[in-house]
Amino acid sequence: MPRLATAADLPAVLDLIRQVVPLMNAAGNWQWTAEYPNEEVFRRDIAQGHLWVAELDGQVAAVAALTHNDQDAEYAQADWDAAEPALVTHRLAVHPQAQGHGLAAALLTQAEVLARQQSLRVLRVDTNSENQATQRLFPKLGYRYVGEITLAFRPGLRFFCYEKWLELSKQAGN
Question: Which of 28, 37, 66, 149 has the most CB atoms lying inside 10 A of its own CB?
Fold first, then answer.
């Protein structure tokens, strides 16, 4: 069950990222580097109450930042309504030794829970065009591909965008 990250989780989160980034890079996925995501980014996520972790055997084994419409202007390149408020998943990572245990899916399910609590109808996520694992995962969880974007701060990379619309339960009397 995912939980909000605390400052005490920061060393484990940074270790997780140090394990994941070289494997991503070796597979040709340069979405992340030794410079990003970094400690400052995760400290800010924790301070804003956006960083969630999932544990396996009592250890932090997966992480995701669940934010609100935290998307650069370039995201308007995707086939979605950028004005529609959304819960956006960023910095989703699973420790290599914990992959295959459903932790990424658990964090994305937590995004759905938060969206419903906040009466948001839309979930969004993007991934590097070279990240085959997430490109398989997102559609399995009901996300639809909505286009490809480029980001000025990550020149040379392409990102695939995905969106999921939620059915909000009707309030009594509506």
Answer: 66
SS3 59: strand
Q: pTM to 2 decimals?
A: 0.91
Residue 40, classified by CB atoms within 10 Å of its CB into exposed (0-12), middle (13-18) or buried (19+), is exposed
Alpha-helical regions (H) of 34-174: 39-47, 103-117, 132-140
pLDDT in tens, 57-67: 999 999 999 99
Both tokens assigned to 42 = 């995760």
Quote the CA–CA distance of 130 and 148 in Å, as a whole number: 12
Q: Into which CATH architecture does domain 3-165 fall?
A: 3-Layer(aba) Sandwich (3.40)
